[in-house]
Amino acid sequence: RGDREGMQRALLGAAEAPLEGAAACLEALQLAADALALGNKHLVSDVACANEFANAALAACAHNVRINHKYLKDANAVAAQSQRLQTIENQGEALYRATAASMRPV
Q1: 79 CB-contact burial (10 Å; exposed 0-12 / middle 13-18 / buried 19+)
Q2: Between helices 4-37 and 44-69, what is the axis angle to 10°?
Q3: Residues 11, 72 contacting (CB under 8 angstroms)
Q4: CA angle (98 as vertex; 96, 104 as ends), nearest 5
Q5: Tens digit of pLDDT per residue, the chain (106 long)?
Q6: DSSP secondary structure string, 43-73?
Q7: Angle (nearest 5°) at CA 33 between 27 and 36
């Protein structure tokens, strides 16, 4: 039924792309935190939106990674990507919560 090895390579790449996206979302969450730290009251609503959007995008990327993992047979690759994803999610959650908790007009 087709090229099974090729399909597995494709699935690995299909999981890697949103994993890279999740890392970019983590960077966006850090940028939101950095922008809030500037103390400019005119940025508060923009930072709040950026924080929410980046957090939602990270969750969507994580969902896509996990969907692809359901079909991958390489347990080592799944474990490695899952570990990277968990680290990104943990850091992202911490940034998201800290920034959201600090949201107030400056």
Answers
A1: exposed
A2: 160
A3: yes
A4: 105
A5: 678 999 999 999 999 999 999 999 999 999 999 999 999 999 999 999 999 999 999 999 999 999 999 999 999 999 999 999 999 999 999 999 999 999 865 4
A6: GHHHHHHHHHHHHHHHHHHHHHHHHHHTT--
A7: 140
Contacts of 102 (CB under 8 A, 6+ apart): 36
* Best CA proximity match to 89, nearest among 21, 33, 40: 21
pTM for the structure as a whole: 0.92
DSSP H or E stretch at residue 78 = helix 75-101
Contact predicate 78/69, CB 8 Å:
yes
Burial code of 31-54, b = ≥16 C-beta within 10 A, e = fewer?
Answer: ebbebbeeeeeeebeebeebbeeb
